[in-house]
């Protein structure tokens, strides 16, 4: 690990041998080999010192110079290197250890010096650079070529107006005047007549194509026509199930608008995080269109006597593939049983941008001859809908997904160590040096969102001095959204990000589905999603309803095969170069390094200068993280949760995302940690069933009560469920003591988003 230690690394935390052994693809060097490498490195150092005339001391502070260049691969060596294990990627403990020794030896002495010196250097725009090895010993970045694919295209709009349908004139005028829409989208044109005819339907169309109104309009049309007029006391006539609270709120708001002329029809929303008592009272008064998350609906089915489904005529599952997915299945069964016991014949509608698998389970919700509706540009007018059974519907829905035409998708390959600075540079580029940019950054865990939120607010915002509050650049407005936040805060953030003109939303997949946040310009996937389907939903938060937008997927060199996975779903990405993202740092004087590279004649930013600035930024991150124990703990928690999430990729993707492919020292750096903390062994050993026996034993020793081993499916499920967790765990636990009776339901509740 010595090579990964900072030049002036003062860490007393030796790297656990377990991790070195997990990540060390090479056998240890013989004495002769070590000597040869030492000699070679010394030679290179000497050459550099002569070329740059770097004083010895300065060279110690910034060791990235010549060796960085050695890490820049020749085109030949760049080719076809995808796995660190295969690529000659040299993790800690390999070559370079010896060259760093003189420096690490003096670490005790430099500790005090570095701290004082760092402070002195601030304000002089020549920060003390502690992080010297950022650009060294990284795996090669392979050439990235997205395979040619035939993109699936969907036309968003039709030239047809809502007047052409046989709708109530007040409904049409509400669409025109309240929602400001006049012509139908393709999916609306296909779906509305089918649903008005009373048929069940399975609807798939690209993200942001207007699926909510595709079921909302016929639902309102049909309910307003019911005679005698619907009364509040009739209870629910339509049940709409959606996977997240924010989506529930959003759908509820749309129904409030649609129902403006039909005031006798009452919409209502039930969702986790809200007070049950208040919801019960509303249910007692009567809700005709009931929108709910699965968990909260189940909770009421079990505990609220006044909930009755005898009048339900419609069941709509929005984001149906998510609801039919792992974890929600049990809740859905409870909901369906309750509906089937009570209700008359009803219409069932399933919608999503990625409906494929899970359709065999449609039988379980007793769809009757569902019509399969999908939108494809190739289909000739009149656009046919397909009469199908659940089985044929399954066949007709391929796994090639349409993404919006105005979406420009990119990928950047970044070695683990550089991920944090690269993400920061990207955010600065978009939000500090450009105007009107609204970004959503997807991260794999709640803890990582919290960590990045605190870190970016502390480091990326301009600070004049330590006392003054950070100066908010107007566009550098960070927001966070994840399942462990209190509901009020979630709602506030959702509203704020919906309304703001620019900003950065750091979030988990809780924001991946269905949310219609206006004018989002970039979707950044800092951690790749667990499936191509989730990729489609995440990027679908931009370029909605015929507009344009962009996306950027971060991959490490060992993860580049993910591009092929996406290509197999007809999704292709253009490469963005890491260097060009990092070059943004040249615009920010706060990250100016020693500046001596400025003298160079070259017109563009020197690569070395960019690296130096990236190193300054990384140093700032590490200084912040190591400034106090709380920050270190937060970084460790984030790292641990990242590792846990990494073990949950499905087995079909383990060849790309396997915990063994991670270099933990490098990964730790992307959390501002100078070294991989000890104790991670237990986290990964318990999470990773394939970890060595030795690691598992160590983990057992350390943990008094090691968590139960889970199958990979269980882990995936529990991750998803914790992701969508209500955040009520503490409150529910205390209630548990008082009301044993409610225990089961409370657990169900906290287990789901609802
Ligand atoms: N006919 C229309 N004309 C103009 N805008 C429309 C029309 N129908 C819907 N919209 C708007 O398009 C946006 C996206 O609609 P919606 O959220 O229903 O998309 P979606 O297909 O459900 O997306 P996702 O798959 O991401 O959930 C919304 O802002 C909605 O108001």
TrEMBL record:
UniProt keyword Zinc, yes or no: no
Residues annotated as domain Helicase ATP-binding: 192-373
Domain Helicase C-terminal: 406-582
An example Gene Ontology molecular-function term: RNA helicase activity
Region (Disordered): 1-142, 681-754
Entry keyword set: ATP-binding, Helicase, Hydrolase, Nucleotide-binding, RNA-binding
Cited InterPro entries: DEAD/DEAH_box_helicase_dom (IPR011545), Helicase_ATP-bd (IPR014001), Helicase_C-like (IPR001650), P-loop_NTPase (IPR027417), RNA-helicase_DEAD-box_CS (IPR000629), RNA_helicase_DEAD_Q_motif (IPR014014), SPB4-like_CTE (IPR025313)
Domain notes: The Q motif is unique to and characteristic of the DEAD box family of RNA helicases and controls ATP binding and hydrolysis.
Protein task: RNA helicase.
Record-given protein name: ATP-dependent RNA helicase
Native source species: Chanos chanos (Milkfish)
Lineage: Eukaryota, Metazoa, Chordata, Craniata, Vertebrata
Gene responsible for this protein: ddx31
């Amino acid at each position: 690990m010595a090579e990964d230690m900072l030049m002036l690394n003062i860490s007393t935390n030796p790297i656990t041998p377990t991790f070195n052994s997990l990540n060390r693809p090479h056998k240890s060097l013989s004495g002769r080999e070590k000597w040869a490498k030492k000699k070679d490195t010394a030679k290179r150092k000497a050459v550099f010192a002569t070329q740059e005339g770097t004083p010895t001391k300065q060279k110690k502070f910034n060791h990235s110079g010549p060796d960085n260049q050695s890490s820049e691969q020749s085109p030949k060596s760049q080719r076809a290197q995808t796995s660190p294990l295969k690529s000659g990627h040299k993790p800690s403990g390999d070559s370079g250890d010896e060259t760093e020794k003189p420096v690490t030896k003096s670490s005790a002495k430099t500790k005090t010096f570095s701290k004082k010196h760092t402070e002195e250097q601030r304000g002089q725009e020549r920060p003390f650079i502690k992080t010297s090895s950022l650009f060294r010993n990284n795996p090669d970045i392979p050439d990235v070529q997205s395979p040619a694919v035939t993109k699936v295209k969907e036309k968003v709009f039709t030239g047809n107006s809502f007047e052409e349908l046989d709708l109530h004139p007040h409904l049409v005028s509400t669409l025109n005047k309240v929602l400001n829409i006049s012509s139908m989208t393709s999916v609306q044109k296909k779906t509305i007549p089918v649903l008005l005819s009373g048929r069940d339907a399975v609807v798939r169309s690209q993200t942001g194509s207007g699926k909510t109104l595709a079921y909302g309009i016929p639902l309102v049309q049909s309910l307003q026509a019911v005679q005698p007029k619907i009364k509040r006391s009739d209870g629910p006539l339509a049940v709409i199930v959606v996977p997240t609270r924010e989506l529930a709120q959003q759908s509820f708001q749309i129904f409030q608008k649609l129902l403006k002329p039909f005031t006798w029809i009452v919409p209502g929303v039930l969702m986790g995080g809200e007070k049950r008592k208040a919801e019960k009272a509303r249910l007692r008064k009567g809700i005709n269109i009931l929108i709910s998350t699965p968990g909260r609906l189940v909770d009421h089915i079990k505990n609220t006597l006044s909930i009755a489904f005898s009048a339900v005529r419609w069941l709509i599952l929005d984001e149906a593939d998510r609801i039919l997915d792992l974890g929600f299945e049990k809740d859905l069964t409870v909901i369906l049983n309750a509906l089937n016991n009570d209700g008359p014949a009803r219409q069932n509608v399933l919608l999503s941008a990625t409906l494929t698998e899970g359709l065999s389970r449609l039988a379980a919700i007793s769809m009757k001859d569902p019509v399969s509706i999908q939108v494809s540009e190739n289909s000739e007018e009149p656009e046919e809908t397909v009469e199908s059974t659940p089985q044929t519907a399954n066949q007709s829905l391929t796994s090639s997904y349409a993404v919006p035409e105005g979406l420009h998708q990119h990928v950047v390959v970044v070695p683990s160590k550089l991920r944090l600075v690269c993400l920061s540079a990207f955010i600065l580029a978009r939000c500090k040096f450009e105007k009107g940019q609204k970004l959503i950054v997807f991260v794999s865990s709640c803890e990582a969102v919290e960590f990045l939120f605190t870190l970016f607010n502390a480091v990326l915002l301009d600070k004049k001095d330590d006392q003054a509050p950070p100066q908010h650049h107007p566009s550098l407005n960070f927001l966070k959204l994840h399942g462990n936040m209190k509901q009020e805060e979630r709602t506030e953030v959702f509203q704020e990000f919906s309304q703001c003109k620019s900003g950065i939303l750091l979030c988990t997949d809780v924001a991946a589905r269905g949310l219609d946040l206006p004018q989002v310009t970039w979707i950044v996937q800092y951690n790749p999603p667990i499936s191509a389907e989730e990729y489609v939903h995440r990027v679908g938060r931009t370029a909605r309803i015929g507009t344009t937008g962009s996306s950027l997927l971060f991959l490490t060199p060992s993860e580049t095969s993910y591009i092929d996975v996406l290509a197999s779903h007809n999704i292709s990405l253009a490469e963005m170069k890491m260097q060009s993202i990092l070059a943004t740092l040249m615009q920010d004087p706060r990250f100016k390094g020693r500046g001596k590279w400025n003298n160079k004649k070259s017109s563009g930013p020197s690569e070395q200068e960019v690296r130096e600035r990236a190193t300054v930024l990384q140093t700032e991150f590490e200084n912040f993280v190591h400034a106090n124990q709380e920050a270190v703990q937060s970084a460790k928690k984030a790292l641990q949760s990242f590792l846990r999430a990494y073990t949950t990729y499905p087995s079909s993707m383990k060849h790309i995302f396997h915990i063994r492919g991670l270099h933990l020292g490098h990964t730790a750096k992307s959390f501002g940690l100078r070294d991989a903390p000890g104790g991670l062994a237990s986290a990964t050993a318990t999470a990773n069933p394939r970890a060595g026996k030795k690691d598992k034993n160590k983990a057992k020793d350390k943990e008094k009560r090691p968590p139960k081993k889970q199958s990979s499916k269980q882990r995936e499920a529990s991750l998803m469920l914790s992701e969508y967790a209500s955040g009520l765990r503490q409150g529910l636990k205390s209630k548990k003591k008082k009301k044993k009776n409610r225990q089961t339901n409370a657990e169900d509740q906290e287990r789901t988003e609802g």
